[in-house]
């Protein structure tokens, strides 16, 4: 046996002590006298004093058994003594939760009947034992910090789904979620609790009081004069809401905090005494040496001295010690304390070989079932101790328990047993060891001593962003900031000690060289890890209690990345031809060769069964994988039977259903060792079984190799077998990447990030946001104090109180933020997420190279690439900047290429992932750095992206596409250089980091690509613009319809409320209308010939449609005292973005471009089309400059003279709508005018509008003076234009605009319904 580490395998036949090699002279048993002296030294009799040592009987191994029995029986309590201990208590000796009749509602109860999870609105359960006299205590380990009421109740208490412990007269409870105590009425009491806290519930039935303690600190007496007397006895009880979970300790394990109260369950006193005596004997053996020259003597240090005598002596001790070590109380109180004591001296774990030697002895001298149970209970005790230890400044408790865990796992045989054991050290439970909990109570965690000086940003811009510049800091601010940063560094160093221990544990679990006692640890861990991922992926949304909490996942992910990268780089050093961990990726063959189970997660191309059928030829030709037709048939049948097969797993009935492979209830909820959890329901007291038994977990799926059945060879491969990399496509380089098991772990890490890590990273940003909000509030309060007049001391006093509250809250939050920044948002954690982003990018690139096989890649790779980038940009700043990351710009460009290529990739079929890609691209083009990255991708990809963006809007989600085009234009359009709308500047944005609130950053390069595409491809240009015009027609019509409903609701005399959802949809339709108008402005500016070059087949129709829509929008928005005005003046919450400026400026931009900035011929055509539209009103154009009034010329009466016209926006109502009560008279109301927006509209733009107005005024006068066309020559459809087209073969006539628009959707004649085969120009004969 090695003196360090646990790498040597030991069996009962070949066991030798390590130091036997050091002392070859010690062979055989020592002489009788020396043996007798040694045994008397180890097992001294308490009745013989040292003076009688010479008279004592010789003691040999034959007599040792009886001698030891006699020593152990001394001091045992008698039966009478045992009976006296339980006075004042009624019920079974072993106290558990009453799962037969003492509960209300639905509950999961662990197999040991100590852990419980609520599964209905408000469930209650009590214990099996009650007390009526004396002082008693029990502990509750809080696993979730939600709504629970914990305390005591009598048998008379009746609970229901609304009332629980503390809501009835004879029940008393403490609620740390709401920080109150309950006994029918409620008052403030105690402190708030958090997951990982321990609540002690104390009842004194001599004094009639109930007290609660949190983590050993008394919260004060909660209740006095509680009801006592004959017939009154109190049970421990709890009520808890849905998904909340706790574990009870009535005394089956040592209570963590000792008071002058008795635990409800008697400690095993006799066994405790025996175990302590036996442990004392073991200590003596370890600290005694036998030398034939010197005799028996004490040693300075504990170690196993190499005499066979020692081994036989220990065998006698273990004969009694081993059975005791199967009891949880004794393992925790005796063994764990002893092992922790060995490590107390400090130093590395390697410096304490004694633990390894003791574990060797355990495996040698105990039966297998005994050592298994002992190790199981030891690890569960360590897990509980680690999880429920209070946070102290040096994290001493956590370090202590992690060091012992590391020492135990260094022992190879123990490690493999714990890894293999299904219910003990699987990934589910071991995740607890990688979590560092965040303290809610800063003072108790000692952060005040560690970070004595606090600091937060103090300078903010108009939008509330911190605009700190180190040069502007005062000397005091600088000192405070530096002191705070030093405190943060001290905290970070202490946390790093814990993290390093956690990584050491993972490195032990990932050891793949320990093959001496069977399969290497890594392969056992890998299969467990895959099972862990399956449980979390499969149960999401079905059984939330079976999921690993996201805060645990975050810590586990970071430690796993560190450990995997260490092994990866070790492998690179041994095999120089392989890939460095910086260049890590997951090869595409993992996704289709069936070696790794993705448990029905969505693939980019759809379901795996569908892909195997449709791409079987590609698999055969590209990857040499031939799918057996029988397998495809079996897969199809499997899909058909899917609902039936999973039925049992999805039914939440009974222990079997809840304890199955897919639906295991909260492993973490109760820190007790829960196996087949019980499911309790008031409706059915007995345990129910599912109608169909679950399929056995070892059933081999047709689709993939079952996780449990995989061996090292299946994973790593061997000669002629590629293992996980079977089926390498030709596009994939033929070079070693890394150990194949590491590739699968990296794949699992990516999946973990997708499951819940990203969501948790976003959740923890709340603390930073809170600091920011309180800092703004504090600064605002200080400014008010400075302005407060001296004559108002009352106001000053209130402001000073507020200032004190804000400052205290900021002190607390800034320390808490320091903890979160160290554990979650540190530079190292940021580099981990960045590494993950790069892994995903390279994986997607390699998978993309495989052509059609790209469809097999799981969707979560694309999701993680997008989310990891989002996290780096939004969550880790301002503490860490993304620009400082190595290779940052190159990575941005690679991600831009992925988004540009795949947002319209036909190989991707999922609508959700398509939407996510589109949204990510939309966000990408909002920020200057990422937009420049899009411009850096190869030109061919940029042009392809723009072509996809310009595809017709029908039959696809077009809003995001339109938003992308708008962002590429924003900053170039007419009056379109704003970040926020003028009327919203005084309001605070909900989130200044939103993409829509970023400063304009147009892309001239992508605009050029768009212009070239639309100019060269006439058909694409026509279909794109027709679709934009159609959507504008729809969006603005919907908007008008909705504001009519809102106005009607506002005019009703009774009080009414408009549905917020309706308001939101209304605002969205308005925003869509504005963005579609901006895209039209962009198109008109970049490619005016699409509308103005009438040699193009669709140009005239497009221009007429554009003019028609612009006139409709202007008329609706600018009419005097109109509907739009009234709704804007209501200023309803949700309609903040609805205003005159954005929509009128967008329309003005289009009009200026076609009427002022164009060539003379184009301007002439545009003017004639605009003026010939029946809805044109000069008054609407005059309104833009505030010139429109009640008598603005003859054209202003067009509203009353023109009959209702049914246009593309529905009927235009001629009569004005009655004004709502309170609407301002025209004289009182300020007219809209572009002149008022000097900060937004340049002088040159104003002059252009004035020139446009003058030009249109002149043109409209000339049009009015020209000879009117006779009614017979007008188009019989619109009565606005002259007849200019004749239909074939029926010879009916209309204007070109009407027939062209009609033929877009219908080929039948307006009048005779004959099919139109052609349209020819028509001009009236000269003589007519």
TrEMBL record:
Top-level taxon of origin: Eukaryota
Signal peptide range: none
Primary localisation category: cytoplasm
Enzyme Commission number(s): 2.3.2.27
All residue ranges annotated as the B30.2/SPRY domain in the record: 73-255
GO biological process: protein ubiquitination; proteolysis involved in protein catabolic process
Catalysed reaction, written as an equation: S-ubiquitinyl-[E2 ubiquitin-conjugating enzyme]-L-cysteine + [acceptor protein]-L-lysine = [E2 ubiquitin-conjugating enzyme]-L-cysteine + N(6)-ubiquitinyl-[acceptor protein]-L-lysine
GO molecular function, one term: zinc ion binding
Group of enzyme by EC: transferase
Record-annotated RING-type domain positions: 1275-1313
Functional pathway: Protein modification; protein ubiquitination
Gene3D superfamilies (UniProt xref): 2.60.120.920, Zinc/RING finger domain, C3HC4 (zinc finger)
Cell compartment(s), UniProt: Cytoplasm
Sorted UniProt keywords: Cytoplasm, Metal-binding, Methylation, Phosphoprotein, Transferase, Ubl conjugation, Ubl conjugation pathway, Zinc, Zinc-finger
UniProt GO cellular component terms: cytoplasm
Alphabetized CDD domains for the sequence: RING-HC_RNF123, SPRY_RNF123
Subunit structure, as described in the record: Component of the KPC complex composed of RNF123/KPC1 and UBAC1/KPC2. Interacts with UBAC1 and CDKN1B via its N-terminal domain. Interacts with RIGI (via N-terminus) and IFIH1 (via N-terminus).
Name of this protein: E3 ubiquitin-protein ligase RNF123
Source organism (scientific name): Myripristis murdjan
Taxonomic lineage: Eukaryota, Metazoa, Chordata, Craniata, Vertebrata
Gene name tied to this protein: RNF123
């Amino acid at each position: 046996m090695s003196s360090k580490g646990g790498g040597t395998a030991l069996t009962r036949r070949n066991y030798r002590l390590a130091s036997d090699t050091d002392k070859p002279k010690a062979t055989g048993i020592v002489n009788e006298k020396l043996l007798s002296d040694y045994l008397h030294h180890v097992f001294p009799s308490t009745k013989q004093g040292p003076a009688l040592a010479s008279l004592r009987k010789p003691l040999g191994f034959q007599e040792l058994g009886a001698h030891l029995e006699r020593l152990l029986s001394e001091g045992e309590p008698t039966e009478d003594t045992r009976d006296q201990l339980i006075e004042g208590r009624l019920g079974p000796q072993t106290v558990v939760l009453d799962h037969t009749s003492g509960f209300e509602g639905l509950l999961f109860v662990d197999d040991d009947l100590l852990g419980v999870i609520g599964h209905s609105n408000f469930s209650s359960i009590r214990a099996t034992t009650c007390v009526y006299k004396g002082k008693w205590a029990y502990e509750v380990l809080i696993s979730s910090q939600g709504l629970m009421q914990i305390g005591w109740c009598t048998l008379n208490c009746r609970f229901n789904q609304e009332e629980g412990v503390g809501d009835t007269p004879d029940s008393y409870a403490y609620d740390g979620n709401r920080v109150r105590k309950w006994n029918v009425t409620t008052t403030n009491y105690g402190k708030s609790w958090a997951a990982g806290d321990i609540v002690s519930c104390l009842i004194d039935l001599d004094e009639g009081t109930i007290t609660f303690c949190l983590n050993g600190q008394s919260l004060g007496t909660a209740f006095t004069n509680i009801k006592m007397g004959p017939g009154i006895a109190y049970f421990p009880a709890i009520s808890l809401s849905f998904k909340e979970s706790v574990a009870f300790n009535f005394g089956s394990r040592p209570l963590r905090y000792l008071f002058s109260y008795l635990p409800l369950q008697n400690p095993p006193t006799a066994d405790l005494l025996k175990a302590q005596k036996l442990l004392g004997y073991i200590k003596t053996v370890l600290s005694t040496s036998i030398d034939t020259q010197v005799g028996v003597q004490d040693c300075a240090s504990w170690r196993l001295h190499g005499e066979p005598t020692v081994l036989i002596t220990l065998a006698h001790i273990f004969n009694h010690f081993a059975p005791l070590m199967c009891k949880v109380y004794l393992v925790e109180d005796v063994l764990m304390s002893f092992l922790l004591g060995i490590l107390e001296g400090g130093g590395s774990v390697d410096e304490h070989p004694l633990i390894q030697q003791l574990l060797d002895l355990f495996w040698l001298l105990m039966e297998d079932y005994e050592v298994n149970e002992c190790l199981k209970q030891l690890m569960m005790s360590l897990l509980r101790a680690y999880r429920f230890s209070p946070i102290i400044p040096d994290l001493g408790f956590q370090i202590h328990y992690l060091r012992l865990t590391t020492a135990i796992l260094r022992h190879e045989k123990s490690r493999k047993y714990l890894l293999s054991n299904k219910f003990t050290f699987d990934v589910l439970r071991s995740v607890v060891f990688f979590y560092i909990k965040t303290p809610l109570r800063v003072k108790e965690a000692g952060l005040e001593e560690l970070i004595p000086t606090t600091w937060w940003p103090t300078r903010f811009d108009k939008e509330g962003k911190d605009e700190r510049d180190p040069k502007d800091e005062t000397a005091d601010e600088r000192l405070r900031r530096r002191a705070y940063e030093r405190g943060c560094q001290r905290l970070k160093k202490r946390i790093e000690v814990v993290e390093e221990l956690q990584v050491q544990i993972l490195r032990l679990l990932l050891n793949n060289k320990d093959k001496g006692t069977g399969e290497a640890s890594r392969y056992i861990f890998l299969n467990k890890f895959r099972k862990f991922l399956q449980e979390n992926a499969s149960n999401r949304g079905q059984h939330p209690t079976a999921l690993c909490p996201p805060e645990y996942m975050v810590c586990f992910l970071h430690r796993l990345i560190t450990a995997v990268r260490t092994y990866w780089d070790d492998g690179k050093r041994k095999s120089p031809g392989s890939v460095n961990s910086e260049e890590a990726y997951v090869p595409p063959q993992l996704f289709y060769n069936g070696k790794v189970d993705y448990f029905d997660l969505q693939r980019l191309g759809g379901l795996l069964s569908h892909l195997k059928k449709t791409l079987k030829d590609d698999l055969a030709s590209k990857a040499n994988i031939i799918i057996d037709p029988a397998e495809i048939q079996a897969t199809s049948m499997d899909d058909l039977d899917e609902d039936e097969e999973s039925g049992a797993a999805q039914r939440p009935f009974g222990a079997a259903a809840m304890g199955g492979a897919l639906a295991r209830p909260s492993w973490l909820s109760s820190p007790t060792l829960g196996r087949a959890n019980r499911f309790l329901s008031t409706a059915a007291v007995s345990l129910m079984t599912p109608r169909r038994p679950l399929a056995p977990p070892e059933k081999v799926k047709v689709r993939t190799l079952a996780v449990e059945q995989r061996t090292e060879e299946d994973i790593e491969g061997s000669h002629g077998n590629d293992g996980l990399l079977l089926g390498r496509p030709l596009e994939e380089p033929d070079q070693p990447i890394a150990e194949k098991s590491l590739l699968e772990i990296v794949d699992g890490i990516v999946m973990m990030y997708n499951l819940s890590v990203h969501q948790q990273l976003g959740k923890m940003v709340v603390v930073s946001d809170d600091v920011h909000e309180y800092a703004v509030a504090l600064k605002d309060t200080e400014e008010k104090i400075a302005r407060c007049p001296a004559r108002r001391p009352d106001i000053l006093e209130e402001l000073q109180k507020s200032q004190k509250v804000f400052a205290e809250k900021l002190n607390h939050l800034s320390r808490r933020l320091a903890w979160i920044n160290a554990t979650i948002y540190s530079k190292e954690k940021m580099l981990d997420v960045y590494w993950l982003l790069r892994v995903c990018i390279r994986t997607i690139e390699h998978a993309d190279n495989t052509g059609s096989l790209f469809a097999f890649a799981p969707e979560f790779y694309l999701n993680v690439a997008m989310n990891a980038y989002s996290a780096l940009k939004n969550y880790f700043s301002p503490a860490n900047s993304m620009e400082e990351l190595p290779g940052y710009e190159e990575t941005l460009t690679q991600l831009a290429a992925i988004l540009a290529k795949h947002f319209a990739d036909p190989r991707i079929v999922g609508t959700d992932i398509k939407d996510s890609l589109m949204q990510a691209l939309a966000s990408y083009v909002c920020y200057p750095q990422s937009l420049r990255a899009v411009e850096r991708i190869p030109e061919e990809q940029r042009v392809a992206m723009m072509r996809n963006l310009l595809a017709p809007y029908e039959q696809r989600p077009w809003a995001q596409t339109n938003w992308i085009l708008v962002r590429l234009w924003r900053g170039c359009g007419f009056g379109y250089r704003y970040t926020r709308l003028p009327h919203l500047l005084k309001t605070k944005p909900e989130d200044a980091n939103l993409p829509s609130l970023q400063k304009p950053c147009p892309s001239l390069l992508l605009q050029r690509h768009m212009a070239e595409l639309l100019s060269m491809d006439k058909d694409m240009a026509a279909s794109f613009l027709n679709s934009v015009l159609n959507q504008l027609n729809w969006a603005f019509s919907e908007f008008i319809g909705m504001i009519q409903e809102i106005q009607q609701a506002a005019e009703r005399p009774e009080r009414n409320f408009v549905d917020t959802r309706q308001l939101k949809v209304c605002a969205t339709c308005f925003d869509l209308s504005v963005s579609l108008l901006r895209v039209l402005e962009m198109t008109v500016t970049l490619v005016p010939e699409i509308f103005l070059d009438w040699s193009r087949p669709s140009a005239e129709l497009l221009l007429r449609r554009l003019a028609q829509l612009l006139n409709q929008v202007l008329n609706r928005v600018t009419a005097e005292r109109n509907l739009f005005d009234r709704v804007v003046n209501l200023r309803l919450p949700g309609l903040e973005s609805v205003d005159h400026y954005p929509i009128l400026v967008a329309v003005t931009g289009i009009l200026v471009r076609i009427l002022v900035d164009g060539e003379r011929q184009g301007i002439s055509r545009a003017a004639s089309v605009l003026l010939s539209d029946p809805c044109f009103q000069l008054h609407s154009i005059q309104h833009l400059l505030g010139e429109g009034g009640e008598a603005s010329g003859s054209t202003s009466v067009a509203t009353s003279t023109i009959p209702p016209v049914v246009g593309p926006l529905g009927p235009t109502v001629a009569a004005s709508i009655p004004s709502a009560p309170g609407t301002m008279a025209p004289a009182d109301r300020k007219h809209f005018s572009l002149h008022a927006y000097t900060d937004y509209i340049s002088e040159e733009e104003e002059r252009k509008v004035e020139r446009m107005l003058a030009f249109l005024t002149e043109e409209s006068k000339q049009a009015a003076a020209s000879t009117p066309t006779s009614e017979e020559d007008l188009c019989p459809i619109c009565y606005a234009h002259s007849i200019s087209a004749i239909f074939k073969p029926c010879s009916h006539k209309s204007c070109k605009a009407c027939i062209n628009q009609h033929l877009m959707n219908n080929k039948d004649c307006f009048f005779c319904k004959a099919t139109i085969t052609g349209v020819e120009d028509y001009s009236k004969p000269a003589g007519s």
